[in-house]
Amino acid sequence: MLERLKAAEKLKKSYEKVGDRINNIDKHYLNGLDKYLANLNINNIVKIDEESGIITIKGNKLPKNAFENAIIDALHPTLNKVVQRRLYDEKGNAKVDIDLTDHGHPKAHPIVPHAHDWENGKRQRKFRPLTEAEKEKIKDIWSDEE
To answer: In whole angstroms, what is the distance from residue 24 CA to residue 99 CA?
Structure first.
């Protein structure tokens, strides 16, 4: 994904440099990329980790769709810490939300962190404990000492 973003920037700059109008094929590609970035809420992106590819967005509104097997974190604007990690499937659809808080309701959410699965494009209210694989996927933002 990072490569596509960099390539698009390079393409835009090459047209600006030469002063040509963008041809239809490139225009179609760049418009599609712009719509994709708008969906990702690009203005709120705080960081894209070049090694892992994990995108961190400030706020709690993560996109339902991203690119294949994406991982996007929600950074709480006032606490300045990641409160949710969303994992996407091979088609770029939201698959699992891993919540790192009890949402302010410890009795309703006694397990922290916990997972909410996505089914048919909807986040399920029912939560479950994390699998071992999911625990591995949050090691960079969560430790059992928290």
So the answer is: 43
Sign of CA dihedral 60, 62, 141, 45: negative
Cα–Cα distance measured from residue 34 to residue 12, given in angstroms and rounded to the nearest whole number: 12
Where b means 16+ CB within 10 Å and e means fewer, 117-135 reads: ebeeeeeeeebeebeeebe
Peptide bond before residue 113 is cis, with ω within 30 degrees of 0: yes
Q: How confident is the model at residue 29 (pLDDT cuts 50, 70, 90)?
A: low
Specify whether the CB–CB gap between 46 and 75 falls below 8 A.
Answer: yes
pLDDT tens sequence across 103-140: 888 998 899 999 999 999 999 999 999 999 999 999 99
